[in-house]
Design brief:
With about 120 residues, the chain is mainly β. It has strands spanning about 1-5, 10-15, 20-25, 35-40, 45-50, 60, 70-75, 80-85, 90-100, 115, 120-124. A hairpin with a 4-residue loop joins β7 and β8 (about 80-85). It starts with a strand and ends with a strand.
Length: about 120
């Protein structure tokens, strides 16, 4: 079992930055891939970014590529999402997710554990 707790969300103006963190506890954190998803009001949850177990391989949705950076610190059992040049359309609840497999995946059903989410609001 893995417990995930996100933090770092908030209200920011367009063009600003936020850094999300996801603290993991429970079974081994470093062996599985991790990801970030988001869900805006009235929309389905969508993939944002993922990182493999070692941190060497990353994947991004086209909508955030070049603006967001995912990273992980296995020694601290923590996943990060650095979000720069934020846009109003980035407004959503952001979820951290973990999977048992080591490779990155873009579909939410491939993740086994989820955090409770953190709200990100970008004002225009």
């Amino acid at each position: 079992q893995v417990q995930l707790v996100e933090s770092g969300g908030g209200l920011v103006q367009a063009g600003g930055s936020l850094r999300l963190s996801c603290a993991a506890s429970g079974r081994t954190f470093s062996s599985g891939a991790m990801g970030w998803f988001r869900q805006a009001p009235g929309k389905e949850r969508e993939f944002v970014s993922a990182i493999n177990w070692s941190g060497w391989n990353t994947d991004y949705a086209d909508s955030v590529k070049g603006r967001f950076t995912i990273s992980r610190d296995n020694a601290k059992n923590t996943l990060y999402l650095q979000m720069n040049s934020l846009k109003p359309e980035d407004t959503a609840v952001y979820y951290c997710a973990a999977r048992s497999g080591s490779a990155t995946r873009q579909f939410d059903y491939e993740y086994d554990y989820w955090g409770q989410g953190t709200q990100v609001t970008v004002s225009s």
